[in-house]
Amino acid sequence: MLLIHCPYCGEDRSELEFRWAGEAHIARPDTISAISDDEFAEYFFMRDNTKGIAWERWRHIHGCGRFFNAIRDTVSDKFLLSYKAGLPRQPVPGSEPAAAPAVEGGVA
Amino acid sequence: MRKYSVFALVKEAMRSHKGWEPHWVSPEPRSSYDVIIIGGGGHGLGAAYYLAKEHGITNIAVIERGWLGGGNTGRNTTIIRSNYLYEESMDIYEHSLKLWEGLSQDLNYNVMYSPRGVMMLSHNTHDMQSFKRHINANRLYGIDNEWLTPEQAKAFCPPLDISKTARYPINGAALQKRGGTARHDAVAWGYARAASDRGVHIIQNCEVTGIRRGPSGEVTGVETSRGFIGAKKIGVSAAGHSSVVMQMAGVRVPLTSNPLQALVSEPLKPIFPCVVMSNTVHAYISQSDKGELVIGAGTDQYHSYSQTGGLQIITHTLDAICELFPIFRRVKMMRQWGGITDNTPDRSAIQSVTPVPNLFVNCGWGTGGFKATPGSANLFAHLIARGEPHPLAAGLTLDRFRTGRLIDEAAAAAVAH
Ligand SMILES: Cc1cc2nc3c(=O)[nH]c(=O)nc-3n(C[C@H](O)[C@H](O)[C@H](O)COP(=O)(O)OP(=O)(O)OC[C@H]3O[C@@H](n4cnc5c(N)ncnc54)[C@H](O)[C@@H]3O)c2cc1C
Ligand SMILES: [Zn+2]
């Protein structure tokens, strides 16, 4: 079971309190009714499914109830950082600032 | 290849079993092949076998980064059934079930397919309505599936607790009698042996690290831990790693890789005659021929490649097993493991052409693709050989996530086995 840090509660809590909420920093297109089918498929269905360092959303559903983002290594399942929703994609702790991601979303 | 038969067995018994040959040969890779299959699980090995057998293509390599069947083929709980809801699913799973019925003879290898019946427990009104809908859809389509009362369910599976005071009471069950189990390793080995016999190269301990493309974007081969190997066509059948491999060719696929766990008990005398599944309390169980209870648990909620899962997931399943079958409360569990399953948003597989010429993909079988092995392999071979899907797999396109023609088995069954 994972031990997860909620950046709002400021505590490490058991995974049972949390709900995984998919890849982070995917912004819903502002013009959702105007975008093409390809763009919609990309936004709605396609995911990086990264093997390695991944940016993802979690929700502290049985705690404060809030969404936040986290960086986790999906091979070791180790969390590297949790940060509040609304912050831009954070660099991996201890590394050079991450290269600009291909698509930078807003608050996801 | 030496044929296995009772005469071969008697002959070997008389000479201390010194004459058996390896199941398959492990040659040095050629510099190029007509077809390369990435992934030596049941689906990939089977596709190579059917390409050789039914489409006359034998210049094939199956490239596996670990050992054959070391992926989900060798990690799953081997439940086989075809009573899915939608026609696209029924088509491919029923095609598969029919192939299972003759697979040992076809491969001359005992895959121990055992149609002992798969019974799905209904616990509430919603389950009952949903199962009856499945039963009606299946029967209209010519697939067996029948409704049992709790008493009939108990008669079919005596260890089941159907008392009204049970923690998870049962109000009926759906039974597919032709469903059952098979020996997982034997499926990989049987296909490997039969494919190798037809000239297919089986290359283990060789990881594909890149997919090379030609001037018009078409695939030209793969980079591997043993160097470049050329290919006219490539079929990706890498289960939990399918999105990682597809990204090597720049193709995005809608997959989430989740750990899924299983566990086995100490061996018991024969006590459990069938397969029982409960989607609602999330447990499924059968007994192997070695006597172990084989128990499947749920997936972890997050995506991961760790090939392990959370303890709370299996505890939850064992809670349910102990309530459904109080007789098993004191049985010791011996081993637990995880595999990485590739799940699509609609929980149906993808078997498809891709935007990259001569690159084909077979993935998204998720938590329930062992049962599909022969059918999927057979139709994937057709897709690779002809460049277009077989009618039975025509709905499983990658394009459905653009067109919206989803096959929503996710809504049809809470779990996908
Ligand atoms: C615990 C568990 C229980 C399950 N229970 C059932 C069940 O009861 N019934 C059912 O129908 N299904 C079940 N499944 C699902 C089923 O196991 C899978 O859907 C199915 O085995 C996928 O088949 P495969 O042969 O394609 O996969 P695999 O056997 O995983 O084959 C894929 C292969 O690709 C290789 N590979 C990956 N990347 C590379 C690379 N870069 N280069 C070379 N090779 C690579 C892997 O090493 C692997 O061997 C279960 C799965 C698990 C994990
Ligand atoms: Zn919190």
TrEMBL record, chain A:
<dbReference type="Pfam" id="PF04267">
    <property type="entry name" value="SoxD"/>
</dbReference>
<dbReference type="GO" id="GO:0046653">
    <property type="term" value="P:tetrahydrofolate metabolic process"/>
</dbReference>
<dbReference type="InterPro" id="IPR006279">
    <property type="entry name" value="SoxD"/>
</dbReference>
<dbReference type="InterPro" id="IPR038561">
    <property type="entry name" value="SoxD_sf"/>
</dbReference>
<protein>
    <submittedName>
        <fullName>Sarcosine oxidase subunit delta</fullName>
    </submittedName>
</protein>
<feature type="compositionally biased region" description="Low complexity">
    <location>
        <begin position="92"/>
        <end position="108"/>
    </location>
</feature>
<dbReference type="GO" id="GO:0008115">
    <property type="term" value="F:sarcosine oxidase activity"/>
</dbReference>
<feature type="region of interest" description="Disordered">
    <location>
        <begin position="89"/>
        <end position="108"/>
    </location>
</feature>
Automatic annotation (TrEMBL), chain B:
<dbReference type="InterPro" id="IPR036188">
    <property type="entry name" value="FAD/NAD-bd_sf"/>
</dbReference>
<keyword id="KW-0274">FAD</keyword>
<feature type="domain" description="Rhodanese">
    <location>
        <begin position="35"/>
        <end position="79"/>
    </location>
</feature>
<keyword id="KW-0285">Flavoprotein</keyword>
<comment type="similarity">
    <text>Belongs to the SoxB family.</text>
</comment>
<dbReference type="GO" id="GO:0008115">
    <property type="term" value="F:sarcosine oxidase activity"/>
</dbReference>
<dbReference type="InterPro" id="IPR006076">
    <property type="entry name" value="FAD-dep_OxRdtase"/>
</dbReference>
<keyword id="KW-0288">FMN</keyword>
<keyword id="KW-0560">Oxidoreductase</keyword>
<keyword id="KW-0963">Cytoplasm</keyword>
<keyword id="KW-0547">Nucleotide-binding</keyword>
<protein>
    <recommendedName>
        <fullName>Sarcosine oxidase subunit beta</fullName>
        <ecNumber>1.5.3.24</ecNumber>
    </recommendedName>
</protein>
<dbReference type="GO" id="GO:0046653">
    <property type="term" value="P:tetrahydrofolate metabolic process"/>
</dbReference>
<dbReference type="GO" id="GO:0005737">
    <property type="term" value="C:cytoplasm"/>
</dbReference>
<dbReference type="InterPro" id="IPR006278">
    <property type="entry name" value="SoxB"/>
</dbReference>
<dbReference type="InterPro" id="IPR001763">
    <property type="entry name" value="Rhodanese-like_dom"/>
</dbReference>
<dbReference type="GO" id="GO:0000166">
    <property type="term" value="F:nucleotide binding"/>
</dbReference>
<dbReference type="Pfam" id="PF01266">
    <property type="entry name" value="DAO"/>
</dbReference>
